[in-house]
Design a protein that fits this description.
The protein is α+β, with helices and mostly antiparallel strands. Helices cover 42% and strands 22% of the residues. It has a 5-stranded mixed β-sheet with strand order 2-4-5-7-6. A two-stranded antiparallel ribbon has the order 1-3. Helix 1 (7-27) packs antiparallel against helix 2.
């Protein structure tokens, strides 16, 4: 059902309907309707097909929208709220969600980029966190592990990242509140 409600699908359906109505009107000698149907229907249909060809569906949201709403709406949750909104919407012209972020973190492979499969919200103590489930494909888990410390800081202040290998090609990236990094002991 979600695929039918994408902007590309809606434009394709609208364009096809206008084109069919215009063609039927042309065949039945109704020039006013046929003119509008053909002149508007075909470009809308082509635009919808162009969008469909470059469409990236939203990542599956595992947590219901109403759950954890209070935590999500807090000011300190802003970076994760923006990230959640970004990965749960239709994208066009991109190979994968978070493409520019993963490129900046050097966790990108042009031939087989990491694919975000799902996202879940999580309550950690009194804070808000996200768990992102990736299909790693061309980026080995070792490279993710090497960037673990930077991942939390990259997505927002006072965040830390935890990685969990699910299978050889899949991992979970948890972005959690608080740094939990031990301070080096002061010299006595």
């Amino acid at each position: 059902m979600q695929a039918l409600t994408s902007p590309g699908s809606l434009l394709t359906i609208l364009g096809a309907a206008l084109t069919v109505i215009g063609s039927i009107a042309y065949a039945t000698d109704s020039p006013n309707i046929s003119l509008a149907g053909v002149f508007y229907g075909i470009p809308v249909l082509l635009g919808g097909l162009a969008l469909k060809s470059s469409e990236l569906p939203p990542a599956q949201r595992l947590t219901p929208v109403d759950e954890l709403r209070e935590l999500r709406e807090r000011p300190e949750s802003e970076p994760l709220r923006v990230l959640l909104k970004d990965v749960t919407r239709w994208r066009y012209g991109q190979k994968a969600h978070l493409e520019s972020s993963l490129e900046a973190l050097k966790l990108w492979n042009d031939d087989a980029p990491p694919q975000l499969l799902s996202v879940a919200e999580r309550q950690v103590d009194d804070g808000y966190g996200l768990v992102l489930h990736f299909l790693c494909q061309g980026v080995p888990a070792e490279r993710w592990q090497a960037k673990q410390e930077r991942l939390g800081r990259f997505f927002g202040p006072d965040l830390h990242a935890e990685l969990r290998l699910i299978s050889p090609g899949e991992l979970e990236l948890s972005l959690l509140p608080g740094t939990d990094v031990a301070e080096p002991a002061a010299a006595a």
